[in-house]
Amino acid sequence: MTNAFIKEVFESIQGEALYIGQKQLFIRFCGCNLNCDYCDTDFKKDENFVVHDLNKIYTNPVTPLILKEICDNYNSEMISLTGGEPLLYKEFLKEFLPLINNKKIYLETNGTLTNELEEIIDYVDVVSTDIKLSCSTKQDNRFEDNEEFIKIVKEHNKEIFAKIILDKNYDKDEILKAIEILKKHDVTLIIQPMDCKAKENELKKQDIIDLFDFVTNNYPNSRLIPQVHKFLNLL
Q: What confidence tens digit (pLDDT) does each residue in 31-47 have?
């Protein structure tokens, strides 16, 4: 049996993208295959993890059966696999996800691990994939991986939308390259203003208007959605 390192488990509203406001059970996995410049999430593997609503501490790494028992305490209709990058634990997910009954699975992913996705996509209902642009991440773009990832989801007839996180230093050419992929596969684009460590880099009101005018002029199938859970002060 394959185990996984979990950061935390909690029930809250989905604060991003198209399922915003829906109550979900969040399972946050440790670790990521990327190192985005703006990331402020602690993904290190701890000895224990907390299940917030139950006020319980569990030992890492956890088995699929124990995590399933934790999930049974909640009535949310959808489980969000988030992180970090959940697909780093594809062997664990291959054992865990078949144990879940009567709940939909929502995968939050950076959209680069195509082989791992292939092995668990049958168990997933909704995919929220990032397209991480170098203007934000300070890493190389992964457009080929992003497109292959989207193709796999579409081939399996699963729901998918894409999210791009941007600050005021966005690059229009990079946005257009991402839009070209999304347009080809008819994927809704979510523009998410970045919550920056350096506040001077955040998009201001006119910046947001200008950015979204540019995006929608090139791809009408777009939405502007901030991180609602942050200004509601929720997990």
A: 999 888 777 777 789 99
